[in-house]
Amino acid sequence: MQKTAVVINFEAVIWLYVFFALPALAYTGLMAWLILGWRRLPVVPGPDDGLASFSIVVPVRNEAHCIVRLLSCLRLQYFPAARYEVIVVDDHSTDASAAVVSRFINTHELPFFRLLETPAGGSEAGRGKKAALARGIAAARHEYIITCDADCIMGPDWLPAMAGAVSHFNPHMLIGPVGIESPDDLFGSLQALEMLALAAVTAGAAGQGKAVLCSGANLLFRRDLFHRVGGYQGNEHLASGDDVFLLHKFKGLDDSVIHFVRDRRAMVYTPAANSAGSFFRQRARWIAKTTAYRDIASLFSAAVAGGFNLLLLLATALALFLPAGWFYYTLLLWLIKGLADFFLIGGTARFFRRKALLYRYPLAWLLYPFYVLIINVFAILGKGEWKG
Known about the structure:
By secondary structure, the chain is of the alpha/beta class. It is 52% helix and 11% strand. It has a domain at 54-272: Alpha-Beta Complex (Spore Coat Polysaccharide Biosynthesis Protein SpsA, Chain A). α1 packs parallel to α11.
């Protein structure tokens, strides 16, 4: 009987090794696929053919403290005023957002800037970020829509870079790069590093022709196709997802043309979250929307990446109970993940000139699986919302 028990335990441990090896191989394969996708991306050469025109739609809810920064950036674009407009849509702000925007437009005499104020009251269906975006897009006059968040900033070459990419690709949708503003503390730099990693995943998948992520902070698409795919209809119940679900709809178009803009000038910057609570609530919104995904590539990449991070924690916990060999096996799993992630993030860090963030990588490598666990708990508890 004792011999049989030993054999059973040995077989169980072998199966345990196999069980953890398969996700590690899948994760390594996914990272290699993304790295190759990044390398396949053409660096957008630039010149604008002067044909495309743009409506920049900005949803605003209680952003009086930061909206002027964005409006100033948009006013100072090196781009003909006749070829773009800015539509700010106030989503039931309870602060002075609408007054600040109106004052800015009047002070600088900007006829191509518009403020759409939401009437007081109204049904819940007319509230929220998606409703605000849809209202702005309905009022747009130009061929291409660009969505942007109220707390973002960009350089004066941003719109020329996006126009150059339109001229080069003739796209249905363009995914612009998004980064965190230069951080001044550890918490901010870890957020900036994570955003850089998301940019790497976004770019790599798009480079393989299987885009899985995008950000509404820097997203361009054709107005007529937005209406053809039904806009934001179908996921209004989710606090987030105006960007990714629209991406999935565009991927469903015949011969869809979707590209990532590999151009430093096209980068949009957003501030780091100033508290752990706001940070985790935002990430919870991002995670919660994955339950409604129907896109196979997005589901697979989310399952492989999230699953492997959580399995690392399980493997680490098992090291307390299994023989010493399991400890070294767990260490190998951590090293596999660390190296795969580093090679992926390194390329984008060099291209976007943010190599200084890589000094925070060892700490991020150790913390990230725990972070994945926490945001999944937040998402399960429903701790994500669009500004109330």
